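Newbie here. two chains, one complex. Structure please?
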Amino acid sequence: MINRLTEHRGLDSFDIRYVALIVAILGIGVLSIYSVTHGHQSGTAPYYLKQLIWIGLGVAAFLVMWASDYHHLARFAYPAYAVILLMLIFVLFEGRTSKGAQRWIALGPLNFQPSEFAKLVLILVLAHYYSKAPRVGWLQRVIVPGLLVLPGLLLILKQPDLGSGLSFVAVYAAMLLMVGVRSQALGFILLFSIMLFPFAWEGVWGSLHDYQRQRIMAFVDPGYDPAGKGYHALQSKIAIGSGELLGKGLYGGTQSQLRFLPEGHTDFVFAVFAEEWGFLGVLVLLTLFVALMWLSLEIASKAKDQLGALLAVGIVAMLCFCVVINIGMTAGMFPIVGIPLPLVSYGGSATIMTMASLGLLLNVKRKRLSLFY
Amino acid sequence: MVTGHSSESEFGDLHRRLFILRVGLLLVVALLGLRLWHLQIHEGPYYRDLSENNRTRLVLLEPARGLIYDRHGVLLANNVPSFSLYVMLEDVKDREFLIQQLTDLLGLDPALVRKKMTAKGSKLIPRKIKDRMTLRDATLVESHRLDMPGVMIQVESQRNYPGGVTAAHLLGYVGEISADQLEKPEFLDLHQGSIVGQYGVEKSYDRHMRGMAGQKSVEVDALGHEKKASVVERPQAGNDLYLTIDVRLQKVAEDLLGEEQGAIVALDPNSGDILAMASRPGFDPNVLSRELTTKQWVEIVQDEGRPLNNRASQGQYPPGSTFKIPMAVAALETKTMSPSSTVFCNGGYQFGKRLYHDWKASGHGYVDLHNALVHSCDVYFYTIGQRMGIDVMAEFGKDFGLGKATGVELPSERSGIMPSTAWKQKAKNEQWLPGETISAAIGQGYVTVTPLQMASLVGTVANDGVNYRPRLVQAVMDRTSGNLQELPAVPRGKINAKPETFRVIKDALADVVTKGTATKAKSSVVTIGGKTGTAQVAALRTGPEENIPKKFRDHAWFVAFAPVESPKIAVAVLAEHMGHGGATAAPLAKEVIETYMKLTPQIPAVTSDLSRGNQAGRSVKDS
């Protein structure tokens, strides 16, 4: 293994750009978490410190994924999926409940959220499935992988975790699109309907009466916004909007500092950032995300085999989906589903999983440059 | 394995699709950017205005605390609206000027107001400056509120005890949750400023009565005044309690004690229901449920009469001659004595070098068990105590519930002491001395009991050994379901003794009243059985009772039950420093029993009237 590693080129300028983007986004996250939670906590370790610890663990996950060989990893896809499914079943019965949903497994002092890791494992499973043999026909291309996705999806929806469930569907759709279905248009429609969901949603959603919305929301995700009065959504919109062009400055966000905005360090961290740094800050963050996605797609297009390309596309699709949905929901474009902003929101499982995924992406790129062996 | 299995053309196709994906990515992000531009640039000033002027806050809605009724539905505790003055420091421009204004307007102590305003804490949480304001003061503040930004009047729910001092020790009082309590798991869903029960059934049934807080979102303007509110989650009212006491009897018992210190407990031996439990001196729970100044608090705590002490369940006294009741049961059951066997009393009992006196210096002559109880002959009980030994006595005492808490639903109940050789070894690490058995036989020495234990004991005897746990709460009304849940009496088994034993003893206790030491308890209304007792406070006596300073005088006991034929009530009276039980305590017990017999037939019991009271429950308090 060590021999092999030394065969390859070390960090090149691409890697440095890639890592720099990740570090920049992580930095924005820690800063925003620090800004919104400083002074509010007593007793336990502050959130930003804990987030730094998660990032430390994430770096380790990143390096492990980067140094390994994705071909080996793919071979363990099915057993890993089986383990994740067992964990999801376990979580339903024994999991820790928070805000009405059972998503966590307590590991000593830590809470571990298997649905986050399920996303990465699902990408491995689908990429492995499609690249192992030529999959032809509707049955092999669409139905069988669909059946693979289904148990995980149902278990996650049962928690209920609508956000992770939607990510599952998005990953499946993106992979399907990439391997191509008989009517490619179908795939595009599927993907774009998910991506454009927020905009379409606003048209439909906006036309509903209050009580109708409440009923729908109560059905979809009962724990999140108990009254359905849109308190979170309104506060989040006020936070973002009041940031205007230049923002209110660090610690200056009244919405988040005065705790009008709930969940400021987790799902609504974007609103905190937008309030304090304004539209200019938002543009910087969006640019960083787009650049990261761009480089990731670069890796996908230059992957030397289909497995690598599919892995890369799956990971990009998952990250894109989370970024778009999270920002869309904080900006009041569509209903609130619990999806964190990758690399920015506070959270151990999500941070580690995202960094592991990015490590895997770089692994795909590294293998492209390696010699045949 | 390195190359994919799919055809080259398909793999090549990937690049075309990736291109489309990139275009899609840019498109979606551009739309996001557009939306954010719309929010932050186009509508930015509007939202900035909202964030500065129309701050929406989540405010807690305090639940209405459950009400308390007596056994016939007479209201004992409810909630009334009261006005409190709050200051939101964030909105205050000139603190000293505001203090000046408030002092001028309401006549408040400027130092106190300043202290409250400068106390540690967030500027965003309104601080309570004054509670229980008069309507006049509240209106005065409201009319000046534009000159005093940051000041607000809140209508709050204030616990109210219409009976004042009546049943204060049972009801207890409420108060703001303390820092220590907040740490405890049973108060997990509460917050700083929550009102919880701090004493009495308010404390022991707090979980039932406190209810659940709701939330509302409130828009406030730049001056901190509420503009628009919408309820997010309704508060859930707490459950109502129906106590076992009859408040009419309770009042009589308290009035009988008057200014004296002491306790009266009356219970129904057939269920353990406490009908009255008086303890004097008392306190006004209305005062204690308010915010007290340190001075007021110190005054109450340092009061020599210890008014916060519920003497009925927390006062521990030597039982004196009332202890002869379980002793008599023990003597018959262990066959130490037969009902007819006698002991000769010459006024004293020689043990070792010490002479143990009888209260009657001339002696009682030959006495059997009946006469020993009727005339309270000490020598008879010295003799049987000596024959049985302390450990046999302790066994019977414990059977009657002595030396352990009765388990009544009141906080900090005391257990008294039923000594034994093992107890002394453990508590004092000393050997039991034979002479101590002799003192214990007449309820002196180490033996201590609470009036509640004695009422339960005499009730058990009246009930031929069938024993119920004394209880204070007979039903809980669930406010959410509207169901009245009646709590069953709690049987605690039966004393293992022959019916004949109880018959002999009850006969003797009846004669105590008709011709013995408690003729002052003789009633024309009902037959009463009872036993007097005198608990020594100071061992050394010089001269007649009147010459001794009051605080060294003996405590007077009387325990009784009635009617003798089919007991309906058992009573224990303890009057501190009132001398001999027959003279002072017995008449009080008689009054309580006669009152109770006249009270029946009773007015209709517990009704489930949901609409009663509690308008104050809707009040609001900023968190």
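Moderator note: The two ends of chain A are 12 Å apart (CA to CA). Residues 1-7, 222-229 of chain A have pLDDT under 50 and may be disordered. Thread marked as resolved.
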